[in-house]
Design brief:
alpha+beta, four-stranded mixed β-sheet, 3 helices, about 15% strand
Length: about 120
């Protein structure tokens, strides 16, 4: 059986500086996505606060619903990490109960969890 067989829900927490090897089907949360979006919105703004505000509003409007979803998803990911008690990255969380820290290969982390969950003879 594949490692994914043992995992109904797999969530991976990382950031852009800690790439992971995904296995497919997991939820990938990059905890620095929110600040990266903010940096996009605030890139090359003028010093004048009124002009800067107008440009950011225009960027937000031009981004539309897709940008709003990206922002919401980015900060929901941070909230999810906090609520699960994630303490370091990368981390692979299975079924909101088991976690492996520091393993960038998601399939290997899930396999370690599956091995732990197997009934002992």
């Amino acid at each position: 059986m594949s490692p994914a067989t043992f995992a109904a829900d797999v969530v991976v927490f990382t950031d852009s500086r800690h790439p992971v090897k995904t296995m497919g089907g997991e939820r990938l949360i990059e905890l620095d996505e929110g600040p990266r979006i903010e940096a996009e919105l605030s890139a090359q703004l003028p010093a004048d606060p009124e002009q800067a505000t107008a440009i950011v509003k225009r960027r937000l409007n031009n981004g539309g619903a897709d940008l709003q979803r990206r922002i919401a998803s980015a900060y929901q990911g941070v909230a999810d990490a906090w609520s699960l008690g994630v303490t370091s990255i990368p981390s692979v969380v299975v079924d909101q109960r088991y976690v492996v820290y520091g393993e960038p290969d998601v399939a290997r982390a899930v396999a370690r969890i599956a091995q732990h969950r197997r009934p002992q003879p």
